[in-house]
Description:
Elements: H1 2-12, H2 15-21, H3 38-54, H4 58-66, H5 69-81, H6 87-100
Helix pairs in contact: 3-6, 5-6
Amino acid sequence: MFLENIVNLIVESGAVPALVRHLQAPQLPEELVTGPRAYEDEVEKGSAFTLGLLAIKPEHQQLIVDAGALPHRVALLKRHKDGQSSRAINGAIREAADAII
């Protein structure tokens, strides 16, 4: 009951739209991309993981879908399929698969 109350408070505070925005790495101009995307991957992974934790109730799941999370999660799956694999993306893939099911 306590955990459910905390999750409700987080969802009611507007966390879902903020997390969904961070499921997609910011688009940077090519000249600004100088190294690996480690931090962006971690932000995407953390956002996907947190959304998974918030999705304990059907109404939260629907809110996450309505906020547009699925296309971003599918994009993570496609990126992995294209060979851009990392530990962060592998975790996000599990989250994306859970959301789609």
